[in-house]
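Need C-alpha cells for this chain, all 391 residues.
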Amino acid sequence: MTKNRKSFYALLGIPPKHKLDEKSDWASRTFDPEHKYVTSPIFRNPFIFGGLRIIVALYILITTIIFLEEYVSQGNGDSYLSYFTNLTYIGLCAYFFASGVQTICYALRWRRNGAGAGYPLQQSWPRFLQALHVILYSTVITFPFIVTIVYWALLGGPHVWETTWSSWNAVSVHILNAFFAACELVFTNSPPVPWITLPVTILLLGSYLGVAYITYETQGFYTYSFLDPSEDGSGKLLPAYVIGIAVGQCILFTVVHFIAVLRQKLAAKYKRVIVLDESRKAKRRKGKARGGKAKAKDAEEGEEREGLGEPEGLGEDVGGVDGEGRRSKEEEDDDDAYIDIDENEWEPVQHPNSSRPEMAERERDLERGEGAGVRTSAGSSSSPRKTTSRS
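Here are the C-alpha cells for all 391 residues:
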C-alpha cells in the first residue's frame, strides 16, 4: 500500500483548497486557525504587540536607509545587496513590517469581534503568500544568528569600535539583528518552524555563494574574506567553512525549533494562547466523559446480570442518556406528555411544555373520567387519587 504523501503546502501547515460544497471542519481548511502568528504569550493586547513589531520594523528601515546612503556616498552602492548581512537585515525589516501590519489588522477586528476574529493573511490571501510568510519566518529566526556568530567569530575585531559610526553599524546589524530574532522566537505564539523549511534555508545559503562569486567576477572583490579560495583567503579551508556554516544552520534550526516547542507548552500551561470555540470543546469533552461513565456502568450491570443468570435484556435502561451523555429526543417528548391531576379539584393541569394536540385530547379524556390509569370504586365518596398518564 502506498502512503498518502503530503504536499509542500501541507508540510508548511497550509491547508488544501476546499470546494464550496465540501463539508469540513473550519480549522482544517484555515491557515493558522489559532492565530499564532499574530498573538503573543506576553502581550495580551494585540495593539501593543503589533505596535512593537512596527517600531522594530521602522528602526530597521531607518538604519537600512542611512547605511545605504553611506554606501552610495562612498561609491559602493552597487555592492550593498552583495552582502549576506544586508540581505538578512532587509529580510528582518520585511518580516516585521508584514507581521506588524497583520497584527494590527487582527487587533482592529479583535476590538470589534473579540478574540479569534481573524486577519487578512489567514482569511483572504492566496496560499502562495501564506507559504512565503512561513518561509520568511523560518529565515528570520535563524539567519540573524548565523550572521552574528560568523561575523564575531571570523570578521569582527577591535577595529569595529574605532568610530561612533562603525560601532552603531556593528551593534545594529550584527547584535540587534540577533536580538530581534530572539524576541520573535520567545515573545510570540508563532509555531515551531516546519522541518520542510530546513532544506529551503540550506538552499538559500548555498545560493548566496553564487551571489558572492558573481560579485567577484563583476566588481573584483570577495564580500567575505573566508570565501576567497586563494592562499590570501581561506585557501584549502574554504570547503570546511562552507560545510561548517551549513552544519551550523542545521544545528541552529533544530535548537530554534525545540525552543518554540517548549515555549508553546509553557504558553498552553499558563493559558496564554487562544482556544477556539472553548465552550463548545468543553461541552464535547464533558459529554464524552458522561457517555464514557454511562457505558462503563452499563457494562458493569451487564456483567452482574450474566453472573446472576438473568434473561438477556433484563435491567436495560430504556430512554435515559445516549452514548454521548445526552437525553434522547424520545424521552424529552415523553416528559412533555405528563399531565398532573390536582387531588382536590379534580381538574387537569396541563404541563407547561405540553401544547401538542394529543395532549389536549388526553385532557378531555381525563375530564370525562376515561383517562388511562384513573380508577374509582362504585359509590365511593372519597376523592380520586392523583394519577399520571404517560402517552
